[in-house]
Amino acid sequence: MTLTDSSDSGAQTITRILRNARARRDPRDIPGAEALLGRRVRPGLTQLDVARLVNASSRWYRALENGEQRNYSDAFLGAVRRILNLNDTEWDLVYRLSRHRTMPPPDQQPPRVRSARMPAAIRTLLEQMPFPAYICDYRWDVLGYNARMAADFPWLLHGLNVMLWALTYPEARNQLIDWERGWAAPMMAQLRVHAEQWRHDAGMRAVLDTVLADPDARRLWNSSDLPALSHPDSAVPRRLYLPRQGEKEFSVVLVTMTPDAMPACRLMVLIPV
After folding, report:
1. Which of 46, 8, 15, 28 lies closest to 151 in space, CA to CA?
2. Coil, strand, or helix at residue 272?
3. Rounded CA gap, 233 and 237, in Å?
4. What is the pLDDT of residues 114-169, one digit of tens each?
5. Which tens digits make up the pLDDT trace of 23-61?
6. Residue 227: phi, psi to the nearest 5?
7. Starting from the edge strand earliest in sequence, which strands make up the sheet with 265-272, in order?
8. Which helix (H) or strand (E) holds 127?
9. What is the DSSP string of 46-86?
10. In angstroms, rounded to a whole number, what is the distance separating the alpha carbons of residues 44 and 211?
11. Separation of alpha carbons 177 and 175, rounded Å
12. Which long-range contacts (CB under 8 A, 24 or more apart) does 155-162 make?
């Protein structure tokens, strides 16, 4: 087989995987998708739909699906993976064939969930909470979450850092209504506090560097209007979209607690208003 034949085969594989994923993906399972794309009653996304959901041009996404060799960023490919809900095998093939290399080593990937031992009693409390809830450390790396949280925020299944998802991922801006004022600004204020408090922590620095690489996030970081917050204000409701709920808006308040057994961590609970 010639090099050209091998390249063509790789392009066809990418095309087949992404087309099949688009056909089976139900937009009703993507929070905020119906508000952005309009009401849908059956599975299936167009190329334009995917491009809008990952905040890219239709030409750029179409080039990927056609197997064209471009300088696709890891952030863009990761967004495509989450929106199309690619399984591990599909993701591995798309990444390797589009980038002509294996998955990046851990030290070159964005900070992700770090495994940590959680006391059994706290894990039981988390799982039995009647509201969506999760526990994260001071870097906002998720250590655990309950089933209600995963159902409302599918990105958790990909092991993402809360701050990175909320401030830099396009799907967060689809799901979180009034993203900049209602969500991003108060979270950025908290990030500033933690970045100063743990300024010598390499993991915290990695989160900050990744956030500040996003132009909108950097603009917020440099804003003089950020509130003075070290934790979410539980008196202020925030609005969002949920999977399978179409364009219906939901309001929640965020309540935080610090378990005595995990003093550097937070238990975050989303209570419906």
Report:
1. 28
2. strand
3. 9
4. 445 789 999 999 999 999 999 999 999 999 999 999 999 999 988 889 999 999 99
5. 999 999 999 999 999 999 899 999 999 999 999 999 999
6. -70, 165
7. 142-145, 133-137, 265-272, 250-257, 238-240
8. helix 120-128
9. -HHHHHHHTT--HHHHHHHHTT------HHHHHHHHHHHT-
10. 32
11. 6
12. 155/82, 158/78, 158/81, 158/82, 159/112, 159/113, 160/112, 160/113, 161/110, 161/111, 161/112, 161/113, 161/207, 162/134, 162/136
Alpha carbon separation from 89 to 9, 153, 240 (Å, rounded): 17, 23, 32
Q: How far is CA 193 from CA 140, 185, 187, 198, 207, in A?
A: 13, 13, 10, 9, 13
∠ CA 37-178-150, nearest 5°, is 70
User: For residue 168, which amino acid is it?
Assistant: T
Helix (H) or strand (E) holding 122: helix 120-128
How many other C-beta atoms are found inside a 10 Å radius of the C-beta of residue 113? 18
